[in-house]
Amino acid sequence: MCPLPQFAVNPRQGHGAHAKPVKSALLLYNLFAAPLAFPFLIRDLFRRPFPRFLERLGFIPPLFWPKGETPRIWIHALSVGEANAAIPFARKCAEKWGRDAVICTGTTETGIATLESGLSNAVSAVLPSPFDIPISVRRITKLIRPDCFILVETDIWPNWIWHLASNGVPTALVNGGISSRSAARITRVRPVARLLYGGFKHIVMQSQEDRDRLIEIGIPPARVTVLGNLKYDHPLPDLQRDQKIEFAREMGLEPERPVLVAGSTHPGEEGIILQAFLHARKAVSRLQMLIAPRHPARAGEVFDIVRRSGLCARLRSARERKAPVDVVILDTLGELFRCYGVCDAAFVGGSLVPVGGHNLVEPAAWGVPVLFGPHVESCREMARDLATSGGGIMVYGARDLAKELSHLFLDDSARKDAGARARSAVEKNQGAIERHITLVETMLRDRRTP
Q: In the chain, which stretches have pLDDT less than 50?
């Protein structure tokens, strides 16, 4: 791991000469972004409850801040994946500095719901993020009055980041990653790199490879470090046998039958997975599957795809459960992680189509073998660690997937060994949260430096 970067500048005066806001770039961003964003603002107005829309404009409920030395730590996550990485980190911050010290924001409705579910009363508040327009950013920042700001992984909004930086708030991008394709695009227009990353005082990447790419596009090396992947630090879960049976039945699965969970699937993947599933069922006739589309709103579409394949299907939310089914479609939020706990093998989506993959650690933490496709740009290190350990298997299509599923479900010993290796890989990579807590301590000291 790289040591935390040290800075000899006063944070109240910005982040050094090379990181002063590029006023012309911000001006151009606002001139072009405002007209483009207007249709999305209108869509947001009609798609979200009106109070939620007002919150994104910066009209948030009054916040309680205790008197005294309690800091104000603002943690932001875009959607479900980022929220799952942020939750253990936010909990650790709340343990160290107190519940009232931490406020979290999310961008998507599923991200906000994940934060609310995972943090409950552990933090001061969970709110929607502001629109990246100056009036919204200024208003919510004035109400929160943060001592530091931590962005988990993605969702970089220039007005927001530069407003915080120009007001002396130490800012950090943590658990960051950048693909070779994204780095190549940014390299063609260097000012974009400065606009996106220049407002961060600390940039913490998941791997040395990510760090090298940022440096190549012009980010000063002293500002970029590697502290490990927060997603590995999810508490290792466990369910007793009776708990597994109860939860499987709650999901609409039959506990005595082997289970495959296909999580976070995208359009174009369900058909491939179903082909492999049907082939594997020739060898393992009692095999059943739970499919969790990345976006629950697609559950009806996935249900139709399954039915057209000739399989019996049911939505998880369905009340009528008289006959057993072959496939259950998860159409609810916040349950996928526990579903991995009742399966015998897992496939993680967004990887058979060019999406970049999703969180491979979640099923691995349960001690089940993890299968994934070749498109894992967003989780390269996880895929590499799991494949190297023997707990993860990359597949390239329906034929590959069917072959690996048949092998795993016919060979109990091989399946259990792969699951144990997956969990071991997670354990070996834990510890990032403590290093990130040290970073927050550094940021808070910087904020208090006169």
A: 2-14, 16-21, 450
d(CA 180, CA 182): 6
Q: Mind telling me the catalytic residues?
A: 82
On whether both 134 and 259 belong to a single domain, the answer is no
Domain match, 39 and 147 both: yes
> What confidence tens digit (pLDDT) does each residue in 106-122 have?
998 889 999 999 998 89
Q: How far apart are alpha carbons 14 and 247 in whole angstroms?
A: 51
CATH number for 377: 3.40.50.2000
Tell me the CA distances in angstroms from 38 to 42, 56, 128, 214, one per residue in order: 6, 14, 18, 31
Which segments within 168-241 are labelled E, that is strand? Answer: 171-176, 202-205, 224-226
Same domain, 274 and 414: yes
Q: Which residues pair with 261 in a beta bridge?
A: 290, 346
Give the number of other Cβ atoms within 10 Å of residue 118's Cβ: 21
Identify whether residues 28 and 74 lie together within a single domain: yes
Q: Say which residues have a Cβ less than 8 Å from residue 286's Cβ, sequence separation at least 6.
A: 257, 258
- Distance, CA of 34 to chain centre: 27
Q: Report strand pairing: 148-152 vs 73-77.
A: parallel
What tokens appear for 294 in the block? Answer: 């990345």
Token pair 């530091």: residue: 148
Supply the pTM of this predicted model. Answer: 0.85
Same domain, 308 and 415: yes
Cα–Cα distance, 360 to 383 (Å, whole number):
7
Q: Is residue 189 domain-shared with residue 249, that is, in the same domain?
A: no
